[in-house]
Specification:
Blueprint (H helix, E strand, L loop, with lengths): L4 E6 L6 H12 L1 E5 L18 H6 L2 E2 L12 H17 L3 E5 L3 H8 L11 H14 L1 H11 L1 H4 L7 H14 L3 H8 L7 E8 L2 H18 L1 H11 L12 H8 L5 H23 L6 E4 L5 H9 L2 H7 L2
Parallel strand pairs: 1-4, 1-5, 2-3, 2-4, 5-6
Amino acid sequence: MEKERVIVICGPTASGKTKLGIELANKIDGEIVSCDSMQIYKDMTIGTAKPTEEERKLAPHHLVDFVSPDERYSVAEYKKDAEAVMAEILKRGKKPIIVGGTGLYLNSLIYGIEYPEIEVDLEYRQELENRVLTEGLDVLYNEAKKIDEEALNKISPNDKKRILRILEIYHSTGKTKTELEIESRKNGPKYDYKIFVLNMDREILYDRINKRVDIMINQGLIEEVKYVISKYKNFPTAMQGLGYKEVAEYLENKISKEEMIEKIKQETRRYAKRQITWFKSYENAIWLDALNQNNVDIILKNSYFTEEVSEKNH
C-alpha cells in the first residue's frame, strides 16, 4: 500500500522555516505540525520564537504550546503525538507539513524509530546529577563516549540532559542508545517524507541570529523567564533551552546582562552549526536557498503536489 506523502521543512534556527511553512500550507491546503522541542512548552513564547497569533491564524499549527514547563516530554511521546495529528489532518482531507529544526524529533518520524519503554531509575539519575556537581559534566561526557561514541558525536559536550540519558539507557538496558535505535528502525517510517532543508550563507545566518536575540531581549525575554521561574517550581528540561538557561544565570547574578546577551548569541550560532551538520546526514533531502523567493514552487515540483495544486486552481 502506497504511503501518504508528507512534506518536511527543516533547517537551522532563524532560517525562515515558519514563514515558508505558512506559504506552503496556504498553497496546498495544509496544516503545520511543529517539530520543535522548545515550542511545545506553555508560557515560553519569546525565547522559543513561537509562531505569533497572526501567523497561527494564517495556517493551523499543531504541537505548539501544550506541555507544562514542569513536565517531562520525550521523543517517544512526540512521535506518537505527531503521527496521531498527521493521521487526523489527512482524515480531514488536508495535508500535514512538518516544520521545525529539532533533529531527534525529525529522526523519530523519518526513520520510524520505535522507542522502547525504559523505566527511569530515579536513584541512578540522582547519582548522575550529583556526579555532575562533584566531578563535572566533562567526566560523564567522556564516560558516555566510551559506551556510545556514535551517539555522543551528535550532541554537544554541554548537553547535560542527553549525555545523562545515554548513561541511563545503558544502565537500564545493557544496550547503547545507538544499538536500540538500530533495532527500533525495523518497521520503517509511517509516511513518505519529502525533506527540504533551508540553508543560507553562514555570515547572513549568524547576522540574523544576532538580530533575533536582540529582538527577543527587547520583546521581554528576561521578564518571560522571571514569570516562568515564579510560576513553576521545577524544570526537568524546559530551562535547558537556548536563551532560558543564560537568562536564568543572569537573574542569579552569575553573569552580567551584556555577557548574557553575547552568550545567547554565541550558543545559538553554535546550535545552528550543529543543526546544519545533522541535516547533512539526510540522504534524500533537497537543500534550498532560504532567501530564494520561489521555494514553494520548488517544493511543490519536487514533492509531486504540483498537479493537485494546478487542479485546485482550475
